[in-house]
Write a structure and sequence with these properties.
The protein has one domain: Alpha-Beta Complex (Spore Coat Polysaccharide Biosynthesis Protein SpsA, Chain A). 32% of the residues lie in helices and 18% in strands. It contains nine helices and 13 strands. The strands form three sheets. It has a nine-stranded mixed sheet with strand order 3-2-1-4-9-6-10-8-7, with helices on both faces. A hairpin with a 7-residue loop joins strand 7 and strand 8. The longest helix is centred in the last third of the chain and has 16 residues. It is globular, with a radius of gyration of 18 Å.
C-alpha cells in the first residue's frame, strides 16, 4: 500500500486557536516521527513557518468550521483522511502499523468512518459487533454521536457531503448523526483507544490533562494565555455530565437538535 497516496492527516483549526499549533507540532514530531501520511492544516490565516505541516490550506476569514473543512477536502486528492482537531495532543507514540491496518479495513469494508477511540462506548443500544473477522463495532445510524470528530479515518468524498451546509462542530456531530448521508456506509469503531491523544482544550480553556501532557514533555506554553476553566464553567459542565448519564443520550440529543439548544460558535469552532 502506498500510504501517502491513500490517506492524508487533516488538522482543523482557526485563527482563534492558532496558539495551539506549536505545541501540537512539538508533540507530533516526538510521538509520530514516522507518520506515513502528509500532514495538512486547514485554518483561516497561514500561521507562518516553524511548524510541522506539509501544507496549509488558508481559507480566509468569514467562513466556519464546516465550510473550511469542505474547502480543504476539495484540495486533497487521497480517498481517505485522518481527521483531527488542533488540540488533539499526542501523549504516547503512535502505532503506525496499527493505523495502517485500520486504513486497510476502512477500504476493505467500504466504510464512511473508522473511529480509533470508542467514544461513545459501543453498547447494544448504539452499536453491534461488525464481524468480518475483525474486532470492530458498527455504530447504528441515527444514534447520538455516531458522527463525531473524535480521531478517525474518513471516506473523504462522503465526509465532504456530510459537512456541506453545516457550520460548527456542534452541528456536524449532532445534526450529522441523523443525516441520511451518514447511513450510506458503515460507521466503525475500535474496541479500545488506538490513537493516543488527549483533547487538550474545552470551550477555550485548558483541560488539566492537556497541560499535564505538555509539562511532562517539556512543551513551551509561553505563546498562549489560556487558563483552566473558571468555576462557573466547571459547574455547568458537571451538570451536563450528570444529565448525559441520567437521561437517554439519543433522546437528549434529539431534543437539543429540535430546539437548537447548546452553545455554538458558528464562525470558528466549538469545543
Amino acid at each position: 500500500m502506498n500510504a501517502r497516496a491513500e490517506c492524508t492527516v487533516l488538522v482543523c483549526s482557526c485563527d482563534k486557536y492558532a496558539d495551539l499549533l506549536r505545541p501540537f507540532c512539538e508533540l507530533w514530531r516526538k510521538f509520530w516521527p514516522d507518520c506515513p501520511f502528509d500532514l495538512v492544516l486547514v485554518t483561516e490565516s497561514d500561521p507562518g513557518e516553524g511548524l510541522s505541516f506539509d501544507k496549509t490550506i488558508a481559507c480566509g476569514r468569514g467562513g466556519n468550521w464546516c465550510s473550511r473543512l469542505v474547502t480543504a477536502l476539495s484540495k486533497i486528492e487521497t480517498p481517505y483522511v485522518l481527521l483531527l482537531c488542533d488540540d488533539y495532543y499526542l501523549e504516547k507514540p503512535v502505532d503506525t502499523a496499527l493505523v495502517l491496518k485500520r486504513l486497510g479495513e476502512i477500504r476493505k469494508f467500504d466504510a464512511l468512518n473508522l473511529r480509533m477511540i470508542p467514544n461513545p462506548a459501543p453498547k447494544p443500544s448504539n452499536s453491534s459487533p461488525f464481524g468480518g473477522g475483525t474486532d470492530l463495532f458498527r455504530y447504528r445510524h441515527r444514534t447520538a454521536y455516531c458522527i463525531a470528530t473524535q480521531s478517525g479515518i474518513w471516506n473523504r468524498e462522503i465526509l465532504s457531503r456530510l459537512a456541506d451546509g453545516k457550520s460548527s462542530i456542534w452541528e456536524f456531530e449532532r445534526y450529522g448523526s441523523f443525516d441520511p448521508i451518514a447511513g450510506e456506509k458503515p460507521i466503525l469503531v475500535t474496541p479500545t483507544k488506538e490513537f493516543p491523544f488527549v483533547d487538550a482544550v474545552h470551550k477555550g480553556c485548558w483541560e488539566r490533562f492537556g497541560l499535564d501532557v505538555c509539562m511532562r514533555n517539556g512543551v513551551d506554553l509561553s505563546g498562549t494565555k489560556r487558563t483552566l476553566p473558571p468555576l462557573s464553567t466547571r459547574i455547568v459542565e458537571g451538570l451536563k455530565a450528570i444529565a448525559f448519564r441520567v437521561l437517554p443520550l439519543n433522546l437528549l440529543v434529539r431534543v437539543q437538535n429540535r430546539f437548537s439548544l447548546g452553545a455554538k460558535e458558528p464562525q470558528s469552532k466549538s469545543k
